[in-house]
Amino acid sequence: xxxxxxxxxxxxxxxxxxxxxxxxxxxxxxxxxxxxxxxxxxxxxxxxxxxxxxxxxxxxxxxxxxxxxxxxxxxxxxxxxxxxxxxxxxxxxxxxxxxxxxxxxxxxxxxxxxxxxxxxxxxxxxxxxxxxxxxxxxxxxxxxxxxxxxxxxxxxxxxxxxxxxxxxxxxxxxxxxxxxxxxxxxxxxxxxxxxxxxxxxxxxxxxxxxxxxxxxxxxxxxxxxxxxxxxxxxxxxxxxxxxxxxxxxxxxx
Length: 253
Prior knowledge:
The structure is a single chain. The chain folds into two domains: 2-62; 80-251, Vaccinia Virus protein VP39 (Rossmann fold, 3-Layer(aba) Sandwich). A seven-stranded mixed β-sheet has the order 3-2-1-4-5-7-6, sandwiched between helices. It contains eight helices and seven strands. Helices cover 40% and strands 22% of the residues. The chain is an alpha/beta fold.
């Protein structure tokens, strides 16, 4: 079933390093074939080794075009409730939640504007792409797609039992992050849970991508609990995955 899902991330995120490794290996082979000085192997050889190792790390760790695993098993471990996905994109986090918590329902929210097209490509409707992926995963009957801004949510107070936001809030500037967090706390029920997943500023990320994929608004790991606390959310769990930080917070009763 998942073979029909296309999360539409650019190919170079998954295979760019391996492509570079193949080119580097070809250059090394040419140098050996032409019997040039072995000193010529130093630079392309180093690039090939780095690109190959980074490519394996991306496919095994990040795997942006593959299924996403629930990073925090304690999030909504009751398995039920109405959940909001802030910045649902093409559905990777929505499908993760609906499969991991089969008795939940979900509202997938995104702006589906220029920013969406910049991340996932042009030539298709964002809503249609998201719906197609939900259908391919067989979870469309438990999901609703809403066009909206996470900084000004079109929902009443205390509308959701749980909220998740995966690799979305860290695209916002400082003012936007605080607005989105306050809105998340507003529409979350007292005692409800919030799962935040963001890109980590860690050694894994630095080795694999260097400065190429660093968001301008990336924050230290200690900053996110402070922002959530200001919004009335208490962090109850936090952890790491490759290139990832995750937090589970609960709204004060």
